[in-house]
Design brief:
By secondary structure, the protein is mostly helical. The chain is built from 6 helices and 4 strands; from the N terminus they run E-H-H-H-H-E-H-E-E-H. The strands form 2 sheets. It has a two-stranded parallel ribbon. It has a two-stranded antiparallel ribbon with strand order 3-4.
């Protein structure tokens, strides 16, 4: 009887590679930006498929080929899953600032580039809002800063 190739090996390894390589694609969407659950799901499904194929190849060597290739692919896939998980949970965290300000606290003086690349300081923001409404007695009480987290 001719031994056949177990296709779960190829499918499992392709799922693992898809889980790793599609991370930049899925990071664009708000539902998967904070946590890469789609990629983690692809990786786990790929590793599970590889282990099913590997156990069948080991238990039934007369029917299936792929003990050596399955072991290599499963080992590489487990390493990829481990590196990805460590990368997501350990390196993907945003570090806490050393001195965090509380809501309502006065912000320190700063200067940051705006969307056009021009430096804008807190003093400039507060002064420009007062100058734009000279006839009103209301003064600007604050400024709102929005930081977009991501890669451009």
């Amino acid at each position: 009887m001719k031994r056949r190739f177990h296709w779960s090996l190829a499918v499992g390894f392709l799922l693992v590679m898809a889980g790793i390589l599609t991370f930049p694609f899925f990071a664009q969407f708000p539902a998967t930006r904070s946590f890469a659950w789609v990629n983690l799901l692809l990786l786990v499904a790929g590793v599970a498929s590889l282990f099913v194929a590997l156990t069948r190849a080991i238990r039934q060597p007369q029917l299936f080929r792929g003990k050596i290739l399955g072991g290599i692919l499963a080992g590489v896939s487990v390493l990829a899953l481990g590196f990805f998980t460590v990368g997501i949970f350990y390196f993907g965290r945003v570090p806490q600032p050393a001195a965090m300000h509380k809501a309502g606290e006065k912000a320190p003086e700063f200067s940051l580039p705006d969307q056009n690349g021009n430096n804008v300081s807190l003093q400039d923001l507060l002064a420009s809002s007062q100058a734009s409404q000279p006839d009103q007695a209301a003064q600007a009480k604050g400024a709102l800063l929005i930081f977009y987290r991501g890669h451009w």
